[in-house]
Amino acid sequence: QLTKQDASGHSVRHGLDSEGEQARISGLNFELASVNNPASFTQKYTDVKSEKDALLKIAHGTTTLAFKFKGGIIVATDSRATAGNVIASQTVKKVIEINPYLLGTMAGGAADCQYWERVLGMQCRLHELRHKKRISVAAASKILVNLVLQYNGMGLSMGTMIAGWDEKGPGLFYVDSEGQRLENALFSVGSGSTFAYGVLDTGYRYDLEPEEAIDLGRRAIFHATHRDAFSGGVVRLYWVKEDGWVALPLEDVSELYYQYHPEVKTTTATESPLTFAQA
């Protein structure tokens, strides 16, 4: 913090004396609990790992994935949000459209991911206005990890992927609220990710055709929703290409079950009436 006098003799402050003041000046004032130690308060009373006695129930439980292939990047998610053991919503949009060339995914706390990825969208737009060119995927992921690190240990729950296309081609990064930032060709994040990885590890290769890549993403999300109680709803797919991302039609996972299990036939009550065993 520096102080000097202006021409009229008044003291003028230069510099920022706290992260909180930096946030207020930039218009990003994220309120914390009004206690002496916000970090320990949030860790004690926030449901991060499905603690039954937690006062604050975070909506979490999901399956998201993204992978590179020769035609760009496929991003796929389910649409179910849970709060503890309760299904809070079946229609959550877990892909944040940051700009026409950049996407972010949501896993962890729904509110945390939505808020900070929208803040990231604002920062990406400011970067574009300042530098007269689109932000790179690497720079966008770095901005996000720097944003959430300011609140490390204060209850944020985020596991996101940043996918997009820039001057270097397709880019895919994983960022979480603990400060990890990783680059790879394939990621799956969320409670159903172990099931999705089983499908992806079996069918993934870089030279997939677009139809094969889309089906792989769809199939991986479906099998995750079938085995993971915290995932479900619809499969939401995006294809990131050189000229921007394209949103693909939504598909209900309950209908995909019969598509991937053709041996299972649906019947009506008249076609298959109930029968009762005789004593």
Your description of this structure?
By secondary structure, this protein is α+β, with helices and mostly antiparallel strands. It is 32% helix and 28% strand. The protein contains seven helices and 17 strands. The strands form five sheets. Strands 5, 6, 14, 15, 16 and 17 form a six-stranded antiparallel β-sheet that branches. A hairpin with a 2-residue loop joins strand 5 and strand 6. Helix 6 packs across helix 7. The longest helix is centred in the middle third of the chain and has 22 residues. The radius of gyration is 23 Å and the shape is flat.
Would you list the SSEs in sequence order as H and E?
EEHHEEEEEEEEHHEEEEHHEEEH
Mean pLDDT over all positions: 82
Termini separation (Å)? 88 Å
Q: Report the structural category.
A: alpha+beta
3D shape = flat
Helix content: 25-40%
Oligomer: single chain
Question: How many DSSP H or I helices?
Answer: 7
Return Rg in Å. Answer: 23 Å
Q: What is the count of β-strands?
A: 17
Strand share of the residues? 25-35%
Topology at a glance:
Blueprint: E1 2-5, E2 11-14, H1 19-26, H2 38-45, E3 46-47, E4 56-57, E5 64-69, E6 72-77, E7 81-83, E8 86-89, E9 95-99, E10 102-105, H3 110-131, H4 137-149, E11 159-166, E12 169-176, E13 181-183, E14 186-189, H5 193-203, H6 210-227, E15 234-241, E16 244-247, E17 251-252, H7 253-260
Parallel strand pairs: 3-4
Antiparallel strand pairs: 1-2, 5-6, 5-14, 6-15, 7-8, 9-10, 10-11, 11-12, 12-13, 15-16, 15-17
